[in-house]
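User: My collaborator sent over this chain with a note saying "see what the structure looks like." That's all I know about it. Can you take a look?
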Amino acid sequence: MKPKLVLAGLGHGQLEILDRIEEIREQYDVRFIRDCQTIYTGAFP
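Assistant: Without extra context I'll predict from the sequence alone. Here is the result:
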C-alpha cells in the first residue's frame, strides 16, 4: 500500500508536483481537494 499525498487546491504551491505528477504517482496515492474542476493556467485572476 502506498502512502497518501493530499493536495489542497491546485495553484502555484503545487506547480512542481503537477509537473512531476506521473513520477510521484509511482510512489504515492495522490488525491486532490478542490472546489471545482478547472484548468490551471498559471495566471492570476
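A starting point for your reply to your collaborator: The two ends are 39 Å apart (CA to CA).
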